[in-house]
Amino acid sequence: MHFKTLGDMFVLGIPIAEKILRPVVVYVFLVVGLRLAGKRELAQLNTFDLVVLLTLSNTVQNAIIGDDNSVTGGIIGASTLLAVNYMVVRFLYTHANIDRIVEGKETVLVENCCVLEDKLKKEFLTLHELEAAAHKQGFASLDEVDRAVLEPGGTISFFAKKPEPDESRHRELLGRLDQMMQEIEKLRGTPPPASA
Questions:
Q1: Which CATH architecture best describes the domain 105-189?
Q2: Cα distances (Å, whole numbers) of residue 89 to 9, 96, 102, 192
Q3: CA neighbours within 13 Å on the CB side: how many for 169?
Q4: Phi and psi at residue 177, to the nearest 5°
Q5: DSSP letter assigned to residue 13
Q6: What are the start and end residues of each CATH 3.30.240.20 domain in the chain?
Q7: Closest alpha carbon to 146 in 106, 104, 116
Q8: What's the confidence (pLDDT) of residue 87?
Q9: Cα gap 5→50, rounded to integer Å
């Protein structure tokens, strides 16, 4: 009985070559599929994007493992995925032009405080999703954003507006005024000097 259990755990149900080829095919399919689906899938901007990514992994599971549920098969499949990913990342690191094709390029969504509606439509992003992403990064509204960029990996980078020179000068004067008020309070709190 113990030998049967060990056999079920470690004896492969399919040939090793097939066990290695399956994860490679699924890996290539997912890289191409996610690239074609767009950056918003990686950004997980709403519930639907998250559901797609979660169910995608479950959907391709059987394609990777086949009819084999052995521990050995799982280790071979996982090792194959890790090895393929390692080789792809190293290859793309040394070939920047191919990396740009595979990864894609950034998309500017806000430029000079102006939302680029055509870019939002191209990436299938709504203004509400862009605002929600800005809120997550600490911006009260898009009025505070000078530039927003959707990175190839799906993250949105926001850059704050630089204050106007008059506003900067106003803040500086208020800071100095506060400092002077604190010094006056300190002087009022000290006892008067003793007379000779």
A1: 2-Layer Sandwich (3.30)
A2: 32, 11, 11, 73
A3: 3
A4: -60, -45
A5: S
A6: 105-189
A7: 116
A8: 93
A9: 37
**3-state DSSP percent of the chain in helix, strand and coil, to 5:** 65, 10, 25
pTM > 0.90 = no
Least Cα distance to 28 among 67, 81, 72, 69 occurs for 81
Residues 6+ apart with CB under 8 A from 133: 43, 45, 156, 158
Q: What type of residue sits at position 169?
A: R
- 75 vs 5, more confident: 75
Q: Can you tell me the distance from the alpha carbon of 114 to that of 161, in angstroms, rounded to the nearest whole number?
A: 11
Look at residue 9 and tell me whether its pLDDT is greater than 80: no
Backbone angles phi, psi at 105, to 5 degrees: -125, 165
Provide the 8-state DSSP code for 156. Answer: E
Strand order in the sheet with 145-150: 114-115, 107-111, 145-150, 156-160
Q: What is the DSSP letter of 114?
A: E
pLDDT winner (highest mean) among 55-69, 78-92, 179-193? 78-92
Question: Do residues 23 and 77 lie in contact, with contact meaning Cβ atoms separated by under 8 Å?
Answer: yes
Residue 114: CB atoms within 10 A of its CB come to: 11
pLDDT-above-90 percentage for the chain: 18
Q: Could you read off the pLDDT of 142-168 as tens digits, one per residue?
A: 989 999 999 887 889 999 987 666 777
Structure tokens belonging to residue 28: 């290539």
- Residue at 92: amino acid letter: L
